[in-house]
């Protein structure tokens, strides 16, 4: 039997309640990798006709959210972090190249920070990677791609600094 969204969210909740730090997130990342290759889950929650960003679950108690991302064309995201949150990116289909960035000049309120590219990681179907609070990254996709992402706090509810590549 396929995993359900409810059971997936409940297991993530249990991992994060037991350890809200990197160890709990690592357990959630490993569980996400199982979900990424579950054909029934993917067919139900990462549909071709979904918008680019769909909130599948928002845990009101802990604040984390599970999202579906469906990209139909090439897309490159500028360098960003998730503010006071972390994020786990999981690839369902297609491929994402996620660039890592090092801070050259820190950001401040009203002042964008400057960053320099510091490597990249390829995200292929069935793999997931975690970005901790403040880690700056920029995903790019050369064509259609599908992802499931878990964010520690619903990013739409957090403030973030702006970053510029140098």
How do the helices and strands follow one another from N- to C-terminus?
HHHEEEEEEEEEE
Query: Helix/strand-derived class?
Result: alpha+beta
CATH superfamily: Jelly Rolls
What percent of residues are in strands?
A: 35-45%
Percent helix, as a range, is 10-25%
Low-confidence segments, ≥5 residues, pLDDT <50?
none
Tally of DSSP β-strands: 10
Our count of domains comes out at 1
CATH architecture: Sandwich
CATH class: Mainly Beta
Computed Rg: 16 Å
Q: What do the pLDDT scores average to?
A: 92
> Whole-Å distance between the termini?
49 Å
Backbone shape? globular
What are the SSEs and their pairings?
Blueprint: H1 5-18, H2 22-36, H3 39-45, E1 53-58, E2 65-71, E3 75-76, E4 87-93, E5 96-105, E6 113-123, E7 128-131, E8 136-141, E9 145-151, E10 163-165
Parallel strand pairs: 6-10
Antiparallel strand pairs: 1-2, 2-9, 3-8, 4-7, 4-9, 5-6, 5-8
Note down, in words, how this protein is organized:
The structure is a single chain. By secondary structure, this protein is of the alpha+beta class. It has a single domain, classed as Jelly Rolls (Sandwich), CATH 2.60.120. Helices cover 22% and strands 38% of the residues. The chain has three helices and ten strands, in the order αααββββββββββ. Strands 1-2-9-4-7 form a five-stranded antiparallel β-sheet, covered by helices on one side. A five-stranded mixed β-sheet has the order 3-8-5-6-10, with no helix packed on it. The longest helix has 15 residues. It is globular. The mean pLDDT is 92.
